[in-house]
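sorry to bug you again but im stuck and you know this stuff better than me. below you get a single protein, a line of residues and a line of whole numbers that encode the local backbone shape. mainly i need to know what kind of three dimensional shape the backbone takes. anything you notice is useful, everything is just below:

***
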Amino acid sequence: MLKRTIDLGGPVHYVDFGGSGPTMVLVHGLGGSHLNWMWVGEKLARRARVLALDLTGFGLTPLEGRSASVHANQALLDRFLQAVSPTEPVILMGNSMGGAISVMQTARQPQRVSGLVLVNPAQPRADDTRLERAVLMQFALYTIPGVGEFFVKRRAARFGPEKLARGMLQLCCRDLSRFPEELVRAHVEFARERHERMPWGNEAFIEAARSLVLLLLRKKQFRAMELGIRVPTLLVQGSEDRLVPVANSRELARVRPDWTYVEYAGVGHTPMMEIPDEFVATVERWLDGAGRTASEQVARAS
């Protein structure tokens, strides 16, 4: 795993997991970073050239006067794709907020994407969905100007980076023992580094969270983007996700029956960290089946 930085109107950090073949770009979720893919990146590189970027305000990509909203980060992702794969479309993989951004990118710049993998993607609420009260209240607070900033700042001061990192992982998966200890340790150490060196973290988080909530409240417009996607798409979802209820992805799978839908029983919000081997096997089966045309499109472009 090689760490790299590229200038796209400001520094953008990403990691290169190596590999050859079609370029696969991995996009993390809210509060995440390239570390979310550390357990699957090199395995995915058996079938593709795999890159994982840090969106503006997350990971090691600073704000530096830029916006951390989902719209700004979709524009950043578009520039990143042009820079790392200027002549060929990529296979785009996004988790949670990164899934919503990947949908936006594919809908708005379809020529740059040959295939799409959505991992528990943030999406509009299904008609029969009910979020846990604590999760609903938390995201409601994010949307209130001043209140959201105060809540995030106070939470960071009260708990500190280690407890916050562990709490975020536990929100993704109720049982921390589902995560490899090395992965938990890496996230805790990285949280400490961000706390010491990256004072813009809270500002970026609240801006991204607020813009994401507002985006997903416009269900008709977002659904139109999902319906307009014409590339092979794999949608995976954990049945025990507290942040993106399984009913949301089941509804999306009904709306797009041409997509490949895989549901993991007993898994939470981050299958690539909770069940990395099964997750990679799912992606590889899709690449050999319904997603094969994604690689073939890249070969034709070459």
